[in-house]
Amino acid sequence: MPGRATPDPLMLQETRQVPAALARQWQENAPLISPLVRAIRERQPAYAVTVARGSSDHACTFLKYALETQLCLPVVSAAPSVLTLYGTRLRLAGALVVAVSQSGASPDITETLRAAREAGALTVALVNVQDSELAATAEFVLPLRCGEEQAVAATKSFIASLTAFLPVLAELGGDHALTAALEALPTDLRRTLELEEQAAALARRYRFADQLLILGRGLNYGVAQEAALKLKETSGVHAEAYSAAEFSHGPRRLIVSGLPVLGLSAADVAWPATQAAYAELLGQGADLRTIGPAQGSTLTTPAGAHPLLAPACTALAFYLFAAYVALERGLDPDHPPLLSKVTRTR
Asked: What is the C-alpha separation between 82 and 69, in angstroms, rounded?
């Protein structure tokens, strides 16, 4: 950021690389889309299964809403330990199984995808490291095209995971508006980066926050999950994500204790209900700020030309905010204690 006396952390540097990464993804993955679309049309999967952990699993929450709302395809999240620890092979013939990973190096994700392919599933990997074992295991690969990601806290690979499968949905559904919006997305993301000073200003009010509630709904719920993880990773803030609908079923009691709330606003059909929930919280005295494309948001991001793409801009703005929360607290977001870039679980 202009005026900083020390070099910006990698987390900020990599966040600023997102528009270029997604432009590269759009251009270089174009030849890979039609073969996958043909396979899906020919094999007609009855349901989809996602396989991921951490940030990648939060991207899968978004993918669930995208697949279900656009293709009417039911989506469930696999628990890799069912195979790797319990030794159970699921009956996945006729399924579309999508594994998501930045590194492609976690054995449990790879082994689960391999078992799914052996069972007759149509398998797809969204992965950044193209020569990884996960990529070699999948029948189809959609590279994230992020280049090397060095910061422990994933940023550009998460947003690239949100968008990598969307061209497939656009071609399957004949959604020309989505295709055009994907081509224009890097421009919307560059506009989002112009909010950096506003994000830094918003971060200052959370310098001493030890806990934070993060709300989102529908397409934004996975972004809320990711936001909570990033604040835990980079600032040690005990942040918890809730659906804006589920929050009313008990957790709302927490605002009486004065816990601050960060709500994600939206540009789709889920917004009126979410907006009503936020208005009710404000009326009950909640300390609520918002990030997203809805007019009047504390940090207002571009809505873009298609509802499926607004969460990418919201996530990008949040990453700017999260990096500055860490810096305001005198922390290095690139080197959180006890964590490493690649986590290998079984």
From this structure: 28
Query: 321 versus 247: which is more confidently predicted?
Result: 321
Least Cα distance to 219 among 170, 268, 263 occurs for 268
Question: How much is the pTM?
Answer: 0.95
Delineate the domains of the chain, giving CATH numbers in brackets: 10-185 (3.40.50.10490), 188-328 (3.40.50.10490)
- CA nearest 224: which of 234, 232, 233, 216? 216
Contact 101, 59 (CB under 8 A): no
Structure tokens, 304: 């873009």
Amino acid letter, 63: L
- 140-144 long-range contacts (CB < 8 A, ≥24 apart) are 140/32, 140/35, 140/36, 140/39, 141/32, 142/29, 142/32, 142/36, 142/168, 143/25, 143/28, 143/29, 144/21, 144/25, 144/102
328-341 burial, b if ≥16 CB within 10 A, otherwise e? Answer: bbebebbebeeeee
292 neighbors 318 (Cβ within 8 angstroms): no
Report pLDDT for 1.
57
| Cβ atoms 266, 274 nearer than 8 A | yes
Q: Which helix (H) or strand (E) holds 127?
A: strand 122-127
- Owner of token pair 């020309």: 176
Secondary structure (DSSP) of 300-334: EPP--SSGGGHHHHHHHHHHHHHHHHHHHTT--TT
DSSP state of 103: S
Using CA atoms, how far apart are residues 261 and 280, in angstroms rounded to an integer? 13
Positions marked catalytic:
341
- Percentage of the residues of the chain whose pLDDT score is greater than 70: 96
- For residue 241, what are the contacts with CB-CB under 8 A and spacing of at least 6? 214, 215, 216, 221, 224, 225, 227, 228
Using one digit for the tens of pLDDT, what is the confidence trace for 153-181?
A: 899 999 999 999 999 999 999 999 999 99
Q: How far is CA 187 from the centre of its chain?
A: 19
Token look-up 């994230």 returns 144
